[in-house]
Amino acid sequence: MNREQTRCFTVQKVLLVVMGILLVFVSVWSYITEQEHRDVTNLEFFQSLDYEDGLDVVVRTLDRFPLQYAATLGQDGDPQIRPIEFKFETDGVLYFDTVEFYTSYEEMKAHPYIQICVCDPETRTYLRLGGRVNFTKDEDIVSRCFAESPILTEQFGEARDMVVAYYLTEVRAEFRSFSRGLPQMRYTLPNPYDTQEVQ
């Protein structure tokens, strides 16, 4: 083998080694990315929560299960339940919204307390929270509600002035599960708008 052939053969070996290293790197990067973005089961999700941080448990659970059910006291004195959608949390304050012509708006004005529940049948786990409803038409808060909800934007994008945001004070939450290894927790979640100490 002459010198030129030896050099070509060496270059080919170096290129194969570099390509092999690159292939290993891409495979490892792809695996890590897939692990980071793969959907976790609901059980894995609940196992990942920090149960010492009640606000985090509540917010992450409401985000994970975007359809919640809320109970209000109806105008006829009977309980009323309906689906709602948690919008966002800022500085420990949980925000939701309603619409001026909804019956629930009148119910919450008359009796400003609400109970919210979300349940996961896969793990037989539920989160229940309740508190005092405080309405706001603050434009920044209402805009954030729209930004967080394509459904709200689709339904009321042209009638934004009818949307009323609300936040909860005097918040209590309860986390319960019938799955082995998940805790049973109760939380009081004070926030800057609480005007009285929650008993």
TrEMBL record:
Would the keyword Transmembrane be found if you checked this record's keyword annotation? yes
Q: Which UniProt keywords apply?
A: Membrane, Transmembrane, Transmembrane helix
Please state every residue range assigned to the domain named Pyridoxamine 5'-phosphate oxidase N-terminal. 63-145
Q: Does the keyword Amino-acid biosynthesis apply?
A: no
Which InterPro entries is this protein grouped with? Answer: Pyridox_Oxase_N, Split_barrel_FMN-bd
Regions crossing the membrane = 12-32
Name of this chain's protein = Pyridoxamine 5'-phosphate oxidase family protein
What species was this sequence derived from?
Oscillibacter valericigenes
